[in-house]
Batch of 2 targets.
Target 1
Amino acid sequence: MIVHGVKFSPFVAKVIVALEEKQVAYTVEPPAPTLHPLGKMPVLRDGDVVIPDSSAICAYLERRFPAPALYPDDPAELGRALFLEEYGDAGMAEGWGEVVLERIVKPQMLGQKTDEARLAKLQDVVRERWMGSPRSAGGSPIPAVFDYLESQIPKDRDTLLPRFGIADVAIGAHLGWLEAGGIEIDGKRWPRVARYAEAIRARPSFAAARA
Ligand SMILES: N[C@@H](CCC(=O)N[C@@H](CS)C(=O)NCC(=O)O)C(=O)O
């Protein structure tokens, strides 16, 4: 099993966490943009099988290695888990790619200087989405990411659904943007998010995705 990508991408982290949870052996190799029709990472190679996209890969891994299950059997729980995965991949990830490009990729990988003024504007945009009063593309008020997550994380459990699964894989991975962007969770305002983020970060599969 080969995962093409770099570990600091939360989308790559999703795949690594799923492989770790299922105890499948894998290696991480450099991004392979020619294997992805959108030039993105991750891409999974399993012999002759090539799968782009973290969600497609995780669903593939579930069928290929059914235990332990990461997707609920119950239809309502499955619907909720898949929405939370999509919320992470779309709602949480939005805007971060450019922040990481300016803050990390340019100086550390491309040998280019960070455009500090551009970075500050990009960071304001993600702060507004995560902690402010954001609106949808159509102008409707929507909950800030931290407010929505606070409403979804149970008071007394460190998994979103009764059992650890794809929702935690995705939401946990996308909480990883915070580190890349230099944003801390205010535990007084969002106590459940702060507790959940700490618990998920300590899980061995997530530690392996960072190592
Ligand atoms: N929907 C895709 C999103 C993947 C994605 O956006 N990956 C980013 C890295 S975080 C990427 O490859 N960006 C490079 C590019 O777009 O050229 C997935 O779930 O895998």
Target 2
Amino acid sequence: MALRLGFDIDGVLADFRTAFRLAAEECFKREIDEAADPMPPSEIKRVWAHIARSSNWWMTLRPHEPQEIARLYSLSRAGHWEIFFITNRPASGGDAVQFQTQWWLEQQGFYLPSVLTCPGSRGDLANALRLDLVVDDQLVNCAEIVGASAAKAILMLRPDEHDEKLARTAVDRGIGVVSSLADTLPVLGRVHDLLSSRRGRLLRLSDWFFTKPHETLPDNPRTSRPLEQ
Ligand SMILES: [Mg+2]
């Protein structure tokens, strides 16, 4: 059976934080520095209202790693993986959120994407879809997924949001932690290889998750110095 994967969009593929800050700056006509001066809930609400009025706002987001989305597409085609993009984005003006997200993914080189708009529990969805693995940037979603389904979860903590305590909590729950999509793709390949031989068997985190491959010598081994003992 082909690998079945779930991908969250905002924070994993799309740079939502930057787009939200730019929308806030457009809204209030001033520079916004969320780290130094966080917006109060009333202002955040006004930004969301601004987004709700903006036509096809979800199409304007920048990808975090543009080439990696196209690479994910190629890997999914080659491996016969089935990928579901999952989001609970609220509506903006213009087209439906699902259509905007499909269009955006195609612009990044992922053709014919299956986008699921999911206002409810991601754990229930992962279970219903019999997903093997889900990538999400929210620990609460990852925890819900591993709690309610047999799917494995990977938490994406991008370098500017890295929190050692959060990462430790995730690993303690059997959730892998990555800092980029580029780091995630080799892990997917490993899960693909493992599940083809061990589907149905319980896998521990150490069985399927590591981000750094074993080191090997370069193509011309004579350019390398001997390993230190
Ligand atoms: Mg997200």
